């Protein structure tokens, strides 16, 4: 069974920074694309950023220039560096990964979510 465990959320003032981490654990053959999604109160979950095994990244327009996604394949971990945070970035942030399990089947795995609150 594969698990994704997120950390790094919290309360930050507007203009501040946070770094989210998401580590994969369990038994699997490999991890393909990884990414971050978020869900604000009363809104649908949206994609924030993704990164491929070749470090090709993709961002939603609202975070371009402020957020940076990266990964450490040896540590099976994906990161989201968030700078110049705005109140509208407040949401629960979810880690996502496309995992190849021991049966060589692709499975989409989600973390439990970590709350980011941007407020004075």
Tell me what the structure shows.
With 120 residues, the protein is mainly beta. The chain contains no helices and eleven strands. It has strands at residues 2-7, 10-12, 18-26, 30-39, 46-51, 57-59, 67-72, 77-82, 91-100, 106-110, 114-118. The strands form two sheets. Strands 2, 4, 5, 6, 9, 10 and 11 form a seven-stranded mixed β-sheet that branches. A four-stranded antiparallel β-sheet has the order 1-3-8-7, with no helix packed on it. A hairpin with a 4-residue loop joins strand 7 and strand 8 (77-82). The chain is elongated, with a radius of gyration of 14 Å. The termini are far apart. The mean pLDDT is 96.
Layout of strands and helices, then pairs:
Elements: E1 2-7, E2 10-12, E3 18-26, E4 30-39, E5 46-51, E6 57-59, E7 67-72, E8 77-82, E9 91-100, E10 106-110, E11 114-118
Parallel strand pairs: 2-11
Antiparallel strand pairs: 1-3, 3-8, 4-5, 4-9, 5-6, 7-8, 9-10, 9-11
What characterizes the major β-sheet?
7 strands, mixed
Beginning-to-end CA distance, first to last residue: 40 Å
Radius of gyration: 14 Å
Uncertain stretches: none
What is the strand content?
Answer: over 45%
Number of helices: 0
The shape is elongated
Order of helices and strands: EEEEEEEEEEE
- The overall strand count is 11
Annotation keywords:
120 residues; seven-stranded mixed beta sheet; four-stranded antiparallel beta sheet; 11 strands; 57% strand
Task: Write a short abstract of this structure.
This protein has 120 residues and is mainly β. The protein has strands at residues 2-7, 10-12, 18-26, 30-39, 46-51, 57-59, 67-72, 77-82, 91-100, 106-110, 114-118. Strands 2, 4, 5, 6, 9, 10 and 11 form a seven-stranded mixed sheet that branches.
């Amino acid at each position: 069974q594969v698990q994704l465990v997120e950390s790094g959320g919290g309360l930050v003032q507007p203009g501040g920074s946070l770094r989210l981490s998401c580590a994969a654990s369990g038994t699997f053959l490999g991890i393909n694309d990884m990414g971050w999604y978020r869900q604000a109160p009363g809104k649908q979950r949206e994609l924030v950023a993704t990164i491929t095994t070749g470090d090709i990244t993709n961002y939603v327009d609202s975070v371009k220039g402020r957020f940076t996604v990266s990964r450490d394949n040896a540590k099976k971990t994906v990161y989201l560096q968030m700078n110049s945070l705005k109140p509208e970035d407040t949401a629960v942030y979810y880690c996502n990964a496309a995992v190849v399990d021991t049966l060589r089947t692709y499975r989409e795995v989600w973390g439990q979510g970590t709350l980011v609150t941007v407020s004075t």
